[in-house]
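Support reply, case 0932

Customer input (verbatim):
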Amino acid sequence: MVRTQTYIKKIWMLFILLFCFGLAQAATRQMEYLDRGVVAVKVNNGVYLSWRYLGTDQPAIGFNVYRDGALLNNTPITKSTNYTDEGGSAASIYVIKSVINGIEQETSKSTSVWSKHYKSLQLRRPTGNGCTYTPNDISAGDVDGDGEYELIVKWDPSNAQDNSNSGYTGNVYLDCYKLDGTFLWQIDLGLNIRAGAHYTQFQIYDYDEDGKAEVACKTAPGTKDGKGDYVLLGSDNPTADYRNSGGYILSGPEYLTIFRGATGEEINTIPFNPLRGSVTKANWGDDYGNRVDRFLACTAYLDGVHPSLVMCRGYYTQSNLVAYDFKDNQLVQRWEHHSTTSNVGAYGEGYHNLSVADVDFDGFDEIIYGSACIDHDGKLYYRKGFGHGDAMHVSQMDPSNDDLEGWFIHEDKNSSYGFELRNLRTGDVIFGENTGTDVGRGLAADIDARYRGFECWSGANNNVYDSKGQVISTKKPSVNFRVYWDGDLQDELLDGSIIDKWNGNRTTNLVDLYNEDYGSSCNGTKKTPCLSADLLGDWREEIILYNGNDPSKINIYTTTIPTEHRLFTPMHDAIYRMGIAWQNTAYNQPPHLGFYIGDGVDNIIQPNIYVIKNGSLVIGEPTLTKEGAGSSKQTVGNDSPIEDFSYSWTNASSVKVNWEPQTPEGIQVMIDNDSKKVHFSGIAAVIGEYEFTVTTISDANEEASLSGVITVIDSKLLSELTYTGELTQTVFEGNAITDLVFTWGKGTSDVEISGLPTEMMAIKRDNSVTFSGTPTESFTATVSAVGNGDPINYEINITVIPASIKKVAYITDSTAINYGNDTKLLPALKADEKLYITQIEALQSNVDLSAYDLVVISEVPGSTSPIMAQLKGIDKPVLNLKVHIYKVSDGTWGWATTGFGDNYTETTLSVASNMLEHPMFKGINFSNGNEVQMFSSVSSKGLTYMNPENFTSQTGDIQTIASVKGETQTCIFEAPVGTIILGTTLSKPFIQIGLNSSSYANFTDDGIAVVKNACYYLLGINEEDTSNDVIKASQWAVNPNPIGEVINISTFINDDNTLDIRIYNACGKIVLSQKITVQEGDNEIKINRGCLAPGSYILELENNGMIRSKIILLK
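Our regenerated output:
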């Protein structure tokens, strides 16, 4: 339940927090109040909905989705913040309700449906005198306090100038619009503010804690506010023209103005500082106005709690920064920093942009000013001496440590580095290169899930580096913006209107937004979006581009790709939110989170923030969440450690722990207010029962409270039975199990064993028993503790795969980027009753494959994966789907230097006329007499090929079976036993089917059948005639397998009838039985597994006396 206190109470609470815990430790930052930001978009399969998970939300919060007043979901949605309503229409109206402890809380605003995944806003385009206007940089802030962002649009004239060029420019305008397109106001900066990327850096943020954002920027005589009134100081002339003959403004008053965000009216204006001073070469490096009017701006939490405005001037030579607080409607200078001496301080170190972050973890923000860093108090934190640059990026790029890193690109050819990754706390360079060139562009983003941390690249070369400086690719992608767009936790790449996805060594195009209402970037060759930020919906970002066909419009693009990940809005992360504030500064750069999400988001801690709504503090109720493996109710011996456990809390300053009747001797309770956790550990020494209660400490009306008990008994009365090894094992017939050892002590004097087959051994020695042997059939055995303590029982489940089932090693890589595409082929092979598929990770080496009858090499893993060398010439039949394994490289087979590759467009292969009867094509429906469509479409690459005649040397009759349609590229060939390729003799049959894994999700039924038939052929399996079966073997499947809570059975039935479903455990006992009515045709059956334990089972279907069975694995 959300509560609201008065502003006075808010200030008093913050004072207490800061006094008790120290300013740096508290660092409870003021952030924006935001609503759920619900967005609904019409998609092909219904309506896609997305909404915000807030930084102030409790971790246990869930959500209900309502369409036209009707609840759609059965249970609250807790794992994501998106939902696809297959019954939704363009006329539907949606609301989202939050749920805590089963009780609905606040209700979102009603949301109507967008017809497309973008919303077009009609703007009021200014009319220029000798120029035209297009929307340029845009920033976002909540100017009216309703929890929804408004947009501040900067209009640039067509004659805007770079500082290095002379010429008059049109006026610069700032407009404000609501997200529905409602126009609020326009500020005319007047003729004494020149137009260009380096002049107007505007900030929009709530600086005075009233819950409504203000707008701040440099102004001058001639500026008119949103009410149409001139902005003036003293007796200054509002119509004075201070432009010189070159169009530069090097004289006359300069102002800093803060405007009311809701109306655009002036609140306070002061003389602009940093000052212009004397425009001479001695002061600025030139005397015509190039370097003196290079401005930057940002917002920073310099006191760790409240936002301050920082205005900056100069970076080629002088570097000057002045910080302001906004109090009682007045801009009050906090500090000023001036580096005016060459090679000292920040002189010459600044960039065309900046960043803000707490790099030294003292609770206060620093300003990363290119090759220098300015501390929160305005003093120099460090100077690197690497000089000016055009692009920089700040985030937690190397998650192996807690520090923040920065990726810096340097312009000075004499700099020590052309690019470098820097530890921002220490200033130490992690890696870099002295290029001796002007490196103009660079980008850092987490684009490759195979490598932990960010990847970095630049215009210096074509290399892509991981966070340790290792080259992972020599085919760099675009060097512009990053964006969260699809459903995974990696960054996508935005270049102009094009969103690309890195696929490991190049990119795949996801969408070109220009094709969707002429989405066009701004800032010329920089091709940046007007804005990229999380404005709506879940944690993925929106992109704003202007309409290139009608520049009076902008388009707000949002993703409609579902995601299973839930993360609080990046706008409640201080580093990201500051990045949105400074994104419009000079050469725009993308925002980055202040923490790493590539390892998963489940353990990301909610930010330590408070929000303001209508001038009042808004905080969620205190919460407590149990964490850790240990139970809150434990029974332990008086010489044994408890199993550690913790509680985490939110919306409270601390917790207290009360014990009854007393604190147990030997138990430690550690309260960590920084991480908001209390940890229990230790060895209880004194017998007794100890109850405890953990209670939050806050100013809430009701505190959160959880209880538990630790019972300490005489160790001699405590059962103790542990094991090493796996209780559940699957072995091939004729193979031994992995030894399983049980050990007992304390109150356990022995064990009883039941259900163990006679061929298995259980050898007891002192207080242990070792199970070993080679089982002939599946079984379940029980091991029970005997003695004084409580009963302890363990169940051993062994599944034996009969020799009659062919065993296939499927080589893949679950960490590879295309692994997620293998949603059709691998499940289909696993569902085949004639095959037992074991997924073998390619990142292993020296894997024992002796028990397998066939090796299938998926296209998913890399060609140089450790296992690949082992597979060269292996004494097993091989079905190879990866043609790049033949290339010459460390770890590959080295059979060819040419003749192999990828086809980027084709999905269909043409079968040679003499191969149409090959068993591989049994049951295939050819089109055009000899064509088989393997994929329904191409995602990035389709079929792949290797022409046998291009092997460096080979002897043997290699048969070309099928080629890429319309090409002479061999997709399928068969190499018989005895074939020798570059000295490697094939002792078993070998078939290649070239298929790129980027399109695996697009497999057709025929494509899967070709691969499965190839497996049968290599294994010598002859399919029995099942044409008269009521249940056809090829027409029933269990997906997925292994299975979670629900067993999903797909089956084709020839007539209306009943179907008996039985599940047997490893001992052959029926553990689940159901009879259901089925209809002729396809049937989808769902069975809840109930209380069935994890392990291997036999699933049996019977219809009209025909029985089919499969091995299934329950997770």
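We compared this against your earlier run and they match. Two observations from our side: Confidence is low (pLDDT under 50) at residues 1-27, 1025-1034. The longest strand covers residues 330-339. Please reopen the case if you see a mismatch on your end.
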